[in-house]
Fold:
Amino acid sequence: PVPRSQKDLDPPSLYHINQDWDMMRYFTRTILQFQFAESLCKIAGHEGPLHQCDFSGSTQAGDALKKMLQLGSSKPWQDAQESLTGERKMSAKPIFNYFKPLHDWLVKTNAEN
Structure:
């Protein structure tokens, strides 16, 4: 750690603090967002890299998302997640899958340089 001054201010963090955002909720939202997207892509029949998936025209994906969202707060969140993803636990693996092409490129480029 090093001493910090006003010049070291992180504006995005300040915004979140000022808005009284629960940072754990913000963090978990990102994990769930990618986990849900990966599941919706599978339901839509997408083949190929996750970052190229577009499930917006899939009625099957829409129906699956609607079914999950209709649970509202009537069930624990793990039940809602399981209804869409088939898993009760959060996983950051879909984030890695989404960014895998970038990761592979960075590994290759760094090795070359």
User: Anything to note?
Assistant: The chain has five helices and no strands. The helical segments are 11-18, 23-43, 59-70, 77-85, 93-112.
